[in-house]
Amino acid sequence: MALRNIVLEGDEILNKRAREVTVINDRILITLDDMLETMRENNGLGIAAPQVGILRRMFIVEVDDQLIEIINPEIVETRGEQQVEEGCLSVPGLVGTVERPEYVKMTGLNRKGEKIEIEGTGLLAVALSHEYDHLEGILFTQKATEIRDAFVEEDIEE
Ligand code: ZN
After folding, report:
1. Which of 91, 88, 70, 94 is nearest to 126 (CA)?
2. 157 within some domain
3. Distance between Cα 141 and ligand 1 center (Å)
């Protein structure tokens, strides 16, 4: 595995709709491995392929020791709503309040090409929604009602 550079806000790849993964080949699997290492190195809860410069529909989420890797995800159901403060590896130093569903169900493929169904509530639903947005070319800063300096926020909490 190898660390990849994280694409930052301002790079137009983050505003483009990612393309379907048509064949799960070694290149795709290596990209997923590298995404996981890069996400963990940067203490992220999730990472989507466009964030490492690959405009393909796949992402990883890791919340409460639950690791989810999904290719060609589709949202099949959402319920409720929650207001949450979130940040993004591609927008370092900033957080914002975003409205997300309380519950999300998605279908997609795992790395073996098998169909999977995943469900999440609370923080997992937030992470799944956030990463899915990356595949649509949407950053949380486009949805957030308040965008603040993350470090100032931490100081206030202390
Ligand atoms: Zn993000």
Report:
1. 88
2. no
3. 10
